[in-house]
Amino acid sequence: MATPPIIELSARARDIFRVVVDSYLESGVPVGSKTIARSGINLSPASIRGVMQELEEVGLLAAPHTSAGRMPTEQGLRLFVDGMMHVHEPSAEERAAIEARAGTHGPVEEALAATTAILSGLSACAGLVMVPKREVKLRSIGFVPLSPVQALAVLVSEDGSVENRVLQVPGGMTSSALVEAGNFMTATLGGLTLAEAQGRLERELKGTRAALDGAARELVERGLAVWSEDGERRPVLIVRGQGRLIDAAAAADLERVRDLLDDLEGKQEIASLLDSARAGNSTRIFIGAENKLFALSGSSVIARPFRGLDGQVVGVVGVIGPTRLNYARVVPMVDFTAATLARLMG
User: Fold this and answer.
1) 217-269 per-position pLDDT tens digit
2) Which residues contact 164 (CB under 8 A, 6 or more apart)?
3) Considering Cα of 106, then 108, then 109, then 111, what sign does the dihedral take?
4) CA 246 to CA 274: how far, in whole Å?
5) Which of 9, 249, 278, 315 would you call most buried, defined as having the most Cβ atoms within 10 angstroms of its Cβ?
6) pTM assigned to the model
7) Secondary structure (3-state) at 331
8) How many CB atoms lie within 10 A of CB 139?
9) With DSSP H G I counted as helix, E B as strand and the rest as coil, what are the percentages for the chain, rounded to 5?
10) Structural element, H or E, at residue 225
């Protein structure tokens, strides 16, 4: 059933619909005619029930189970968010808290994680942020033998971050050859990004200066390839505050919460969803089954891209929570966080 546009609803239907949505988003329970009458709607309970029935017939409200109250459908929430919501800007204290966390000293990932955590706390949702794998500059690369056929490649970047990868080594590779390969890569590629290192390595291995035996040469190529491939395919996705998704209302629907937490474990799918929010300049709101990822858990995602000084999209920040989250408060909070991260990443 197609959702009617706002202009097709009568004034009293719009007023009653707004009260139902506001009350439901605050309490998480279906709203009855008595509650609406107490809100100041100048209609009898019988008349209110008649209007609620009409709103149910056009797909904006639903009556769960045998309850006499109504709650907004996902289509109803979409209508509310797109055309009826009055946003509430973050308070001065909330803005200061977000800016303070974004200013965390250390690697950029730590600032992103801290900002995501405070956004989670302020919104009572799980916070999300996704950025492309950073083009770190290499300080050193070394290889530690694990077995006759495996070694641990250890990459240290100039910002002090350390990453490890397990990779297969050529047959008969000795400990001294591992050291030789690591020394060669550190001396040749130190101070370069992965993209720069790829080009430099190709030139060095083709030239006469790379006096490496065949096994060491192969290991050098594998050692760099494992980072280059990983950096292209895996963005950095940070999720904080999953525990906030289990509130009093959610406790009554543990199966939905379990489905949602399972969704959050599928980080590649979440990353794909956030990546779809990169286009455009505005905030994207995904409500429930509008995205197949959350068809079971009935969750909503609010996400906004943030840009660097050159105008290019740097990443996406947002929150995930139940469909009954406080959109009017959370949407501008996500907007402000995106603007803050844009200054940080710029």
Assistant:
1) 777 777 666 655 554 445 677 888 877 776 555 555 666 666 766 766 666 77
2) 152, 153, 154, 155
3) positive
4) 22
5) 315
6) 0.70
7) helix
8) 17
9) 50, 20, 30
10) helix 214-233
